Amino acid sequence: MMSEEHSLFIETWGSMGVLWGINRSMARIHAFIMLNEKPVDLETVAGELDISRGNASMSLKELRNWGVIHRVHISGDRRDFYVAEPDTWRMLFKIAIVRKEREFNPAMQALRDLLANAGLEKGSGVYTRMNDLEKSFSKFDRIMKKALGNERKSRMMLDLLNGFRD
Amino acid sequence: MMSEEHSLFIETWGSMGVLWGINRSMARIHAFIMLNEKPVDLETVAGELDISRGNASMSLKELRNWGVIHRVHISGDRRDFYVAEPDTWRMLFKIAIVRKEREFNPAMQALRDLLANAGLEKGSGVYTRMNDLEKSFSKFDRIMKKALGNERKSRMMLDLLNGFRD
DNA sequence: TAATACGTTCAGAAAGGATTGAAATATGAT
DNA sequence: ATCATATTTCAATCCTTTCTGAACGTATTA
Prior knowledge:
Two copies of one chain form a homodimer.
Chain A: H1 4-20, H2 24-34, E1 40-41, H3 42-49, H4 53-66, E2 69-72, E3 81-84, H5 88-117, H6 125-147, H7 155-164
Antiparallel strand pairs in A: 1-3, 2-3
Helix pairs in contact in A: 1-2, 2-4, 3-4, 5-6, 5-7
The structure holds a DNA duplex (30 and 30 nucleotides).
């Protein structure tokens, strides 16, 4: 059985999932795995969280793609087991980075195109506003980069990204 | 007619809307209003973006609730007109703050409850991980606050927040 | 007063996402 | 190879969100 606090955490994490752009099931599974000292298997996940095996299977796969959980093997057992990525700071930002690349960067690009090519009058309110907005984006960009520290995009990170392109 | 760059910006902004937790229509309307030197009316919004008046009406209302656009009046005209909030940096963070309060803070609270009351063993991996996670959340919290500068929650901001509570 | 213009609301339609469950596939043991 | 078990896939279904459009309310004008 699961404690009050464990359930609360799992459900809250589930709701918060949207912040990272992951759905409820995925986020709940992620929370559940984080809360387990021992590696957990698909059967347990599906049973404890009351979701289908199919859903559990796909969600685990995607969580693995995001790099926030890992598959491990236990000798003498042929089931797959899962554990959470231990580096929490990195874990949180892995998702944020990907989302930034996918959604924020194109918007910043569109904004720069607009400023460069749309022939807005330099003195106009729209120009000023868009220029300010571009500065805001750049500022946000810098904050993001700073928050990520000096961690550079690794090969893995790029692969991950490509895997998620539409 | 609308330029290539304008359309691109509108659609990109629409896609990025999910980052702020606002839907495509709302985000597109927001972009459209930002791109207009002159105040725009509902009719124009619905026509140019090809959405129903009903949708436009509701979206404009919500955008106004978020505080990212404002309603203005033009004397001699009885239609309602809309303009974008001119302070872009503030505009972007208005939404981010509300979302943080709504989704991030409860998760941080659940995490703290878990650490305080779930009776996790101090030495265990789960405890360490959850403790690290709490530190990460606090760090993120600090970054957020820093990004917002020394701007304090104004009365208006609190009203806004309350308006959005479930 | 009637006629027109404008804005809002909301029930139902449409679209989009998430979930299931059964079939297909894979793996390991005997 | 066969059996038993574990996992993945995906079409169908369910659920949620979004959107439409007609109906209604209100204000303005004639």
